[in-house]
Description:
By secondary structure, this protein is mainly beta. Helix content is 4%, strand content 41%. The protein contains two helices and 37 strands. The strands form nine sheets. Strands 1-31-32-33-34-2 form a six-stranded mixed sheet, with no helix packed on it. Strands 16-17-18-19-25 form a five-stranded mixed sheet, with no helix packed on it. The chain has a four-stranded antiparallel sheet with strand order 3-37-36-35, with no helix packed on it. Strand 22 (293-294) and strand 23 (297-298) form a beta hairpin.
Amino acid sequence: xNPALLGIVFVLASSNGGGDADWPQFRGPRGDGVAAGARVxxxxxxxxxxxxxxxPPGTGWSSPLVVGELVLLTAAVADELGLPLTWQKGVDxxxxxxxxxxxxxxxxxxxxxxLASGALRWSASAGKAKPKFPIHPxxxxxxxxxxxxxxxxxxxxxxxxxxxxxxxxxxxxxxxELGAHPTQDAYGTGTSPVLFxxxxxxxxxxxxxxxxxxxxxxxxxxxxxxTRTSGTAWNTPCLWRTAARTELVxxxxxxxxxxxxxxxxxxxxADGFDxxxxxxxxxxxxxxxxxxxxxGVVGPLRAWKAGASGDLAQKDGxxxxxxxxxxxxxxxxxxxxxxxxxxxxxxxGFLQCVEAASGTVKFKxxxxxxxxxxxxxxxxxxxxxxxxxxxxAVLVKAAPKFELLGGGxxxxxxxxxxxxxxxxxxxxxxxxxxxxx
Length: 437
């Protein structure tokens, strides 16, 4: 397709429905998992409401993007790479953390498909190399979701440390190497880049280095870098937009910190308590929401008020900026989502709803049949979408009272967070990419 026409399509799509016509990065236009103007079917299956189903090459847990009439995806392509295992099979598998990385040349690719038909538009290589470090059997070598705008798509592959940019016709624009780094227990990488005002933010929090880097999305030039004590995180930075300012919040290894996206200046930090390293923080205009749940630890869901600065040290076990803490409501791997005055979290098969203003738990309900849920929930129109690795999805009313609205079942394994664009729901399984509409 002509690149100029692609730009026109992007602008028209982005101006329709308050931006819900596109899904340009992890968890959507604002990185918060909300598609307020979108509409998807109340029920679907392999034989119902599947507009198309394709088998992309390679493997990856990166989420699909939608930009104009393109569906964008990344993949690690090599015949010798096996499919990632389900959660339980991965837990039961022999420990691979001490084994050498696979002796396989991997082609890290960005793929573009037609939103209407699923036809391949183009495929571009970000580079070929052998992985430097092993990964968990349930992870992939392409688990980072790219980011995109009308100028191009920006992919980060943590297994090699490569950041590569392509225009929307697949032409290479630039490439930067940030280096590959070991992760805790050789789980592998999973942090997605964030795109904001022509700046690309890449979080590299590993066992031997930890830095947040800002690249100029136009040419890949490094604009600033913020370092911290090493420690692995798989979550994605949170852009927190308040009435006073926009902040970039990161969390890992008992430290949460906020940065000015323009300069990299630290705005505030807090140390010495459990913060998320797999789920991402989320926010609305008034509060930041986060919590940690891990082996033997079920922490609170915390809400912090906007406007903090400096060292937010605890006093008598509390933080001055904390609006509330809901005990036992911290999310697991999926990131929380805020909709209709409620914060929704998922962990251990339970969906919890917490009132955003007060921290009052409105409900805690078991979601049956989904199995392990790794994908983050999305607020789609008036519903909350939850999809489990079993392929079962449920739609729950995004409200303080639990109400099941519908759902679907597909024959694949799902860890990737879906994309929503207009009336299209794009779902990535371990073997197939689906368009439900």
